[in-house]
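Box 3.1 A note on notation
Throughout this textbook, protein chains are presented in two layers. The first layer is the amino acid sequence; the second is a token string describing backbone geometry. Keep the layers aligned when reading.
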Amino acid sequence: MKKLFGFLKSKIKVIISVLVIAALASACIHSVIQDRRRVTKDMGRMIALTPLYDEPGYKQLYARIPYESLNLTTVAASSSGFVNENVGAYSDSKQLTEQEKKDKAALEALLNSNDRQAYTTKGDEARSRNEKYALNKITKISGGGTISVTSNVNGVYASNANGTYLGQFVLTGYCPCVICCGKTNGITASGRPATANHTIAADKRFAFGTQMIINGMVYTVDDRGGAITGNHIDIFFNTHAEALAFGKRTGDVYLYTGQPTQTANVTPSNNNDSQEADLSSVSMIGDSLMVGATTNLKSLLPNANIDGKVGRQQSAGYDIVSGMKSSGTLGKTVVIELGTNGPFTESAGQKLIDNIGSDKRIFWVNTYGPKLSWYAESNAVISKLCNSNSNVTLIDWQTKGMSDPGLFSGDGIHLTSAGYQTFAQMIYDAIK
């Protein structure tokens, strides 16, 4: 046994070398066997005809091989796209397996689909469409036309057959808030009040009064916008939420060319604008935000009858209105700022509106406070009430508050001095 250990010890280097060589030989044999079993051999390689990247960090990620040095055989144009039988895995000198036959058929189909004539045809179609509609050749469209369709509180409608196609435009939405317009009075660049289902903003190629059919509805160009240029139209909505929901999309636009049977003016969905704004007869009912803004409101509307109380719920509004009516102090314009201290039902809000009366201009200020768990619920009800009552207009304090957190004090509900000033100015701009 000692002699055996002594022999192994003396030959250990030789034994290890033999084992290493045997392992390498086994790996080589295994690699050759696996290579023979492959479905296909090299199907191709990446060739850099032009530099891919010149940045130092990418230079080592690929090797540039001159095209001429590869002695490649390519598919001849006369072969109609079929695979050259003398190249690569599909050579006729090799018996193809079933999988190779499928791969070859797929490659032939791909090559045959590369039809230059098809691309030429598509290009001609695109050029023809551009020439037909001349989207960017419109210089000026005169306005003042009238429409030969019916009108109701939801807008005016017409068939595309009553219009001349102007092309596809980018369509966006906006509302009368500070974010969208930088103001809240709802007065357009033409001087006319913006109205949902009627007002659009377009660039100066389209004169004020120009009428267009979009999605079957007739709109009138009454507004402009710094970002509204070229084939871009901004559609007016009553609320910021509606404008956001509309988003950004493309749509076909037609210049209305119908024969006149009635005036072009659409019956507005909100008739506040048809009532004269008497700023000497204004009543305001609110909670602690109204209390905080009283001084600022009085500086803008010295004759306003302001009734604000800390912690007030919406349900208190009905009795306050009844008291003002009894004393003869209920104004022609009524501002409601209720909902901060808790949610309320649509029926409760409607009861308050009915008590005020349909002959009054009513403005309802929605609420905002990141720490108020119910502000979204309250605002949803307020939005429904404004949409369902033609004499009620929304003052969107939520959107303004979300855009400028600096207006709020530490509790995230009540306001700073600058906040109350902004709050009062927003109400004044809406009702004036």
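The CA atoms of residues 17 and 23 lie 10 Å apart. The radius of gyration is 38 Å.
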